[in-house]
Amino acid sequence: MARRLAYRLHALDFEVATRAGIAVAVPLVTLTLLGRLDLALYASFGAFTSLYGRSEVYRTRLRTAGSAAAMLVALIAGGVLISTTGSNTGFLVVGLVAVLAAGVLLCRTLSLHPPTPVFFTFAFLVCALIPVRADEAGLAVLIAVGSASFALVVTMSGWLLRLGRDVDRVTASFKLLKPLPRRAVLRPRAWRDPAVWLNIGQLVVGAVIAGGAAELLGLGHSYWAVVSLVAVVPPVRAAHSISRTLHRTVGTIAGVVVTALVLWGHPPVWLLIAIVVVCQFGAEIFVGRHYGTALVFITPLALLMVHLSSPATSVSDILIDRAVETALGAAVGVAMVLLARFVRVGPEPQ
């Protein structure tokens, strides 16, 4: 029994999760000490870089995580620019369509993991909709650049332990280290794959419907509906099963409940930062094994990031909006999954 438990624990991605936890903890602690936790969002979004390149050899990881970092910083900067103009709806919609298309193409071309543009979409929309003063826009982007750069360094840090050694021997010496089996396939012709454009169409049409419905219903934080839709629609050429979509929906709703329990007693800032780190750690432990379970951690992570940057916002409003818009986005996502069953696409281009 003990040996079986040890094997199961070793099978979990502790190395990846630890990197992710460090990548988000250091920028948040630094901003807290500087008294600028209001800029935590930009640091947290930059730290999303550590979610990419898991279990990849380092030459490949530098390409995937580096590309994700560049994409995140560009989207944060674009979102901040739109925010300084008053979150112009036209710019926001055009930008969202571009983000979804570019995100899907990047994920498919570089075989990114996570394989959907959910983190790209989240970073862009929140940065575009959260007000930022024009005189602090540059600082916000600079913080994102610093956080993404630090996360990239942390993501590549295991190279020092593995340098010049056989991976199995290193794993035996450092129990938390595992072999690096993943080879991210480069697909330069991904843009010619009809399944890619079907996926982009699902996300664009679904995002317009979900976001528009949230606005018509007068819900605040309408970006949650769009992010929820992107989270539940499967990636390119993945199985479009309703059960998987429901798992992701249930995971997101469970995450809202967890967040409500966390914020119920109005915990201090340091405890919230610790919980954010734990959520980032837990998300990485489970994201490669069961995405629905990972969303139980990802959802509180996202909500707590917003709360840390805007503590004056009503907690109950955030949670209610998140729950209702999650259901809305998930419902639209299920509709997109069902519609995709009636569309036949050809084989993947070689």
Automatic annotation (TrEMBL):
Pfam families: FUSC_2. It is a multi-pass membrane protein. Residues 210-335 form the Integral membrane bound transporter domain. InterPro entries: Memb_transporter_dom. Its main location: membrane. The chain crosses the membrane at residues 20-43, 64-83, 89-106, 140-161, 196-217, 294-314, 326-343. The keyword Transit peptide does not apply. It is found in: Membrane. The keyword Transferase does not apply. Keywords: Membrane, Transmembrane, Transmembrane helix. It comes from the Bacteria. This is FUSC family protein.
